[in-house]
Write a structure and sequence with these properties.
- The protein is an alpha+beta fold.
- It is built from six helices and six strands; from the N terminus they run αβββαβαααββα.
- Strands 4-3-5-6 form a four-stranded mixed β-sheet, covered by helices on one side. Strands 1-2 form a two-stranded antiparallel ribbon.
- Helix 2 packs parallel to helix 6.
- The termini are far apart.
- The model has no long low-confidence stretch (mean pLDDT about 90).
Length: about 210
């Protein structure tokens, strides 16, 4: 009976995520625990990122902040979601995480409450993001090969799943709330910059 109830709830959750036509139907809690509707970001280009403070990719915070400062005046926002699911690399409370980010990288973009991005307790927003843009590979290079080798040892079929693989996975959302691209942490930030610029120009009619 309990199993049937669990399956029914899971089905309702899946149907709810599937029914969404954009990210605007989702809510999340900010770093102070206040509920925020993503509806407030209508008309903006978004980059949604799951982050960590003690990861080899943590220096990407510097590049993310530079990207934010470069394009925020054109209607661009970065939404930062700390996550401790990958190697326990986002320890501590939100005050500690926020202090780390502002002290070391002077981050100005919105930061949200620590969340889970995979599994039964994942934030519904991330279930939707993964549904819209699945995993297509880490690309090339030393870091890409390392990540592929590490994850393949844990799960030979990992690449066939849409799950988020590691910290600093990025989802690009257009001004209509549609998820148009996914970047793994191994992708060059220059690629992200070009994609953001292209989207801002395209939707400005330029």
């Amino acid at each position: 009976m309990k199993r049937k109830l669990l399956m029914a709830l899971l089905m309702l959750f899946t149907l709810g995520v599937t029914a969404q036509e954009s990210v605007y139907g989702f809510k999340a809690k900010d770093s102070e625990g206040r509920e925020v509707s993503l509806n407030q970001y209508q008309g903006k280009v978004l980059l949604i990122v799951n982050t960590a403070t003690k990861c080899g990719f943590t220096p990407q915070y510097k590049e993310l902040e530079a990207l934010y400062e470069k394009y925020r005046g054109e209607g661009f926002e970065i939404l930062d979601f700390p996550c401790n699911q990958f190697g326990g690399q986002a320890p501590g409370g939100m005050a500690e995480i926020r202090q780390f980010c502002t002290s070391n990288f002077d981050t100005q973009f919105p930061q949200f409450e620590k969340v889970e991005v995979n599994g039964p307790d994942e934030l519904p927003l991330f279930a939707y993001l993964k549904q819209q843009q699945g995993f297509v590979g880490f690309g090339s290079g030393v870091k890409a090969k390392f990540m592929d080798g590490m994850l393949r040892k844990q799960d030979p079929d990992y690449a066939a799943k849409s799950d988020i693989k590691w910290n600093f996975t990025k989802f690009l959302v257009d001004r209509k709330g549609c998820v148009v691209a996914r970047f793994e942490p191994t992708h060059d930030m220059a690629e992200v910059d070009k994609a953001v610029a292209r989207l801002l120009k395209k939707q400005d009619g330029r």
